[in-house]
Amino acid sequence: MQSRYFTVPSQKNPSIKIEVAPGHFATGSSHISHYINISEMKSSASAAKDAARELAAPYLVNCEVDVIVCMEGTEIIAAYLADEILREGMCSTDSEKNIHVLTPMQSSNGNLIFHQNMQEKIFNRNVLILLATMSTGATVKRAMECLAYYGGKLTGISSIFSAFPEVGEREVCSLFTTDDIPDYRFYRPSECEMCNEGLKLDAIINSEGYTKIT
């Protein structure tokens, strides 16, 4: 599948790039037309720092961020994002002048949870949700439900790639959108046009990578 990759630079900063492979892919809740590889951004300090610098821009003035909740393996990016907001931002954070970077656990029934010792860092705090990719919005909605359950206050949503500009009435700040991948499509599995056209699945994908179907 690597032979299919093409590189897409960010319109905001051309040094920030993602690799994209067209095809027919299945996630846990949808079928999508492109696999977006951001593994370099998740694992490389320099790439994560560049991404964080751009992601921080909307939160540097007149905002409050006490906690960044990481989804889909974005912890390294989140750490640099917290550093950018603390170093460059004019917003006030908590009394410790600190931003906590947290990742929820998944329970046996699929719910997102925080352990007891982490719940106090969420309650009544201003929380930014950070994701890798947003295709259907299912993951961010689960994160928002989790945040509401533990009494956190949603202050922003950021994603490396997002297929839509907002969730509900909340803006999504992203580095890449469907404008960068014009042919990008996603479907419910039962309504997938690629399946109806007889196109076989290329791979099953999740936040950690892909498994080819042979």
Topology of this structure?
Blueprint: E1 6-9, E2 17-26, E3 31-37, H1 39-43, H2 45-56, E4 67-70, H3 75-88, E5 100-102, E6 105-106, E7 112-113, H4 116-122, E8 126-134, H5 138-149, E9 153-162, E10 166-167, E11 170-177, E12 186-187, H6 193-196, E13 203-206, E14 209-212
Parallel strand pairs: 2-13, 4-5, 4-8, 8-9, 9-11
Antiparallel strand pairs: 1-2, 2-3, 3-12, 6-7, 10-11, 13-14
Helix pairs in contact: 2-3
What does this structure look like?
The protein is 25% helix and 33% strand. Helix 2 crosses helix 3. The protein has 214 residues and is α/β, with parallel strands linked by helices. Strand 13 and strand 14 form a beta hairpin. It starts with 5 loop residues before the first strand and ends with a strand. Strands 1, 2, 3, 12, 13 and 14 form a six-stranded mixed beta sheet that branches. Strands 5-4-8-9-11-10 form a six-stranded mixed beta sheet, sandwiched between helices. It has a two-stranded antiparallel ribbon with strand order 6-7. It has a single domain (2-212), classed as 3-Layer(aba) Sandwich (Rossmann fold), CATH 3.40.50.2020. The radius of gyration is 17 Å and the shape is globular. The mean pLDDT is 92.
